[in-house]
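#help-structures

NK: newbie question. if I give both the sequence and a SMILES, will the prediction place the ligand too? trying with zinc ion
OV: yes, paste both and it writes out the complex. here, I ran yours:
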Amino acid sequence: MTLPRGFKANAEREATRLRKELGISPAAPLDVRQLAEHMGVAVVSADRLVDRARLEELERLQAFSFSAATFDVRGNSYVVTNPLRSEGRIFSDIAHELSHLLLKHELSEIRELDDVPFRTCQPNEEEEATAFGGTLLLPRALLLDAARRGLKPDAIATENRVTLEMARYRYNSTGVAKQITRRSS
Ligand SMILES: [Zn+2]
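OV: that's the protein plus ligand as structure tokens.
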């Protein structure tokens, strides 16, 4: 699957615009919980809704089947996160869910989590939300700034509270390291 034309550039612009709304610089780390609050979205840990033991049971039955989900209740959006995940994973998951909302994806497919129905999006929209979320957390301006300071993906992941996997992906796919090398050579 490929992203629509202009999608990546738009995601970069949105990352800058949202930081501006939050009063932080284009290269500053983004606190997705703060962004959620700004968007009027409540972030709720799933263990406040169901027993942690049931979440652990679900995880044993089907590992990684539940990362996060968005619920729309009487016009209010709730992002439910999985407390069994690492902080970086939860951060990425919140960014993914907020991206669905920012991209105005329709929650259409009904799935169930432990007999609780929730809606999810089409596969192409899942891909878009992941790409958009990654850009919100690690936009080009931020990566370039980090690369200039000599930071590698592991340090970028720590500084931005994201997974190493995401830091690596964004660091490599945006080509910031090469850009720095070219300039200094
Ligand atoms: Zn999704």
